[in-house]
Write a structure and sequence with these properties.
The protein is α/β, with parallel strands linked by helices and about 260 residues long. It contains 8 helices and 7 strands; from the N terminus they run E-H-E-H-E-H-E-H-E-H-E-H-H-H-E.
């Protein structure tokens, strides 16, 4: 699929940008004409991403749970590229998997909410005042942000909470024509997902993947590029009348 420059002259900020869906989305955004500022906690991977993607990409190491670090990262993006049009709030951790609510560690529950919910709040809090009118914000939720799942209470709760944050922001910034949506990937072929599947099933990687694929009507995992293309849709003018929406990209799991 050839690039169409759907993000020409746009500047995008991506958290959790050093690996998985975040990095794949950065690759696609650059191919579509954007300048991209990556934010993540793994400095080595961030540096590798900048080296791979070239002069249109910069990075800041920051922990999304730290408001001051997020504010500084947003300021660096604007200082480097002169504007901000697209925000992809994508940082996440899985927390405990396979633990019922009575067994779920309290500190882990709080940590998962901090990364997903407080983290996305910090990103919106600091990005919105400097974003251009007519921009787009996308928050990575999950298929389990639309459904329940036993044994992942922190993650499921956090992914639902992000939808509430999104719906609030969508109402607040509609007058500025800034659109805010969540994307809800199903199981995607990343190391992050593989670790979740092995923890949930107690099976080795390939067997765990098979077990999960039995739950997906399309019968397979998503590729990171399939998720990235859905993020591109929400980031670009192709979705100019879409805001406050939950986009499931899950092979039919919530259908």
């Amino acid at each position: 699929m050839g690039a169409m420059n759907r993000l020409a002259n746009k500047v995008a900020l991506i958290t959790g940008g050093e690996s998985g869906i975040g990095l794949e989305t950065a690759r696609l955004f650059v191919a579509e004409g954007a300048q991209v500022h990556l934010v993540g906690i793994d400095g080595g991977r961030l540096q590798a991403a900048v080296e791979e993607l070239g002069s249109e990409v910069a990075a800041t190491r920051a922990d999304v749970t730290d408001s001051a670090q997020v504010r500084a990262a947003v300021a660096e993006a604007v200082a480097r590229f002169g504007r901000l049009d697209v925000v992809f709030s994508n940082a996440g951790i899985s927390g405990a998997i396979g633990k019922s609510i009575p067994e779920y560690p309290e500190d882990v529950f709080a940590q998962v909410l901090n990364v997903h919910v407080l983290g996305a709040f910090h990103v919106l809090k600091h990005a919105l005042p400097v974003m251009n009118d007519g921009g787009s914000i996308i928050i990575t939720s999950s298929v389990v942000g639309l459904t329940g799942a036993a044994g992942a209470g922190g993650y499921v709760t956090a992914k639902h909470a992000q939808v509430g944050l999104m719906r609030t922001a969508a109402k607040e910034v509609a007058a500025r024509r800034i659109r805010v949506n969540t994307i809800h990937p199903g199981p995607t072929d990343t190391p992050f997902q593989a670790a979740i599947e092995m923890a949930a099933t107690g099976a080795p990687k390939e067997k765990a993947a098979e077990i999960f694929e039995q739950m997906i009507p399309l019968g397979r995992h998503a590729s990171p590029s399939e998720i990235a293309r859905s993020v591109l849709y929400l980031a670009s003018d192709d979705s100019s009348f879409v805001t406050g929406a939950t986009l499931a990209v899950d092979g039919g799991m919530t259908g």
